[in-house]
Amino acid sequence: MTLDSVLLIVLSVGEATVVAILLRRGAWRKLPLFCTYIAWGAVSDAALFVISRGFPAAYNKYYLIETTVDSLLMFSVLVELAWSVLRPVRASLPRATIFVLTFLVALAGVVIWPLAGMTVPPDLDDPQYRLLFHLQETFAILRVLCFLVMAGFSQLLSIGWRDRELQVASGLGFYSIVTLLVTVLHSHQPWGAPYHWLDEAGFSLCYLGTLSYWVLSFSTKEQERKEFSPQMQQLLLQMGGGARAGRIALTDLPSDRSRKKD
Q: Phi-psi region for residue 253, left (φ > 0), alpha (ψ -120 to 50) or beta?
């Protein structure tokens, strides 16, 4: 059995352990998409091990499908984190807030896309793999951005390192920063054994460290969520009130038919 196979098995076990702790702590109630993402990782990694050993001809096709599904789930997780952070005032926000957050995350991805294109290896000739690599690097930068925003505005958002949202974001951010550094090192490194060793150390071991961090984080009891700071609460309520006022104003406008009658 190769080292790659051993690492794949270890990562699958690590992901399964995180899933078990998430279910035990009831985290799926607040972060169902994150739980789904980790469960998908455990299943897809196990399937990758089986396919690589028993059906090597189907490996590339499976990798394309797995990466696409992984990107869609990660996008959903980032939206879920943003929505979960607003939990203390969600009842006061307009219903369209979740769609606004989805649009903002997608917009950030569009802005990041050209920057992520600079990390694509020039010797990667296959258009499909160039696109997938570009997509993966875009989400890596997006995860780092999500972590920096949540950590930077933690005081206004009234979240700390014992809050689940920041624990998830910090794990994703740490892993993404390391993967971006590995990508930069790869751009100055010829193909060969050291290239693959860097992958194993940078991607596999770093992700294993992230899973270990989540195991420790979710093993402890979650602290009670604090209310937003008065400034942040007032800002969000004003935004919500302004959106409602706009809808009411549009609803109250007379229709063309009523104008003609007048």
A: beta
Supply 82's token pair.
């943003």
Degrees (nearest 5) of the Cα angle 120, 47, 198? 40
Q: Which two tokens stand for residue 233?
A: 């609460």
In a domain, 245, yes or no: no
* Residue at 262 is within a domain: no
Residue 15 has pLDDT above 50, yes or no: yes
pTM above 0.90, yes or no: no
Lookup: tokens for 163 = 């809050």
Domain-embedded: residue 155:
yes
> Domain residues for 134?
3-220+227-232
Q: What does DSSP assign to residue 254?
A: P
Mean residue pLDDT of the chain comes to: 81
In a domain? residue 259:
no
Tens digits of per-residue pLDDT, 119-133?
777 777 788 888 888
Whole-number percent of the chain with pLDDT over 90: 38
**Look-up: residue for tokens 């919500």?**
240
Tokens of 148: 């920096």
Residues 28 and 21 sit within 8 Å (Cβ to Cβ): no
Q: Which residue type, as a one-letter code, is found at position 178? A: V
Q: What per-residue confidence (pLDDT) applies to 262?
A: 45
Shortest CA distance to 2 belongs to which of 61, 44, 53?
Answer: 53
The number of distinct structural domains making up the chain is 1
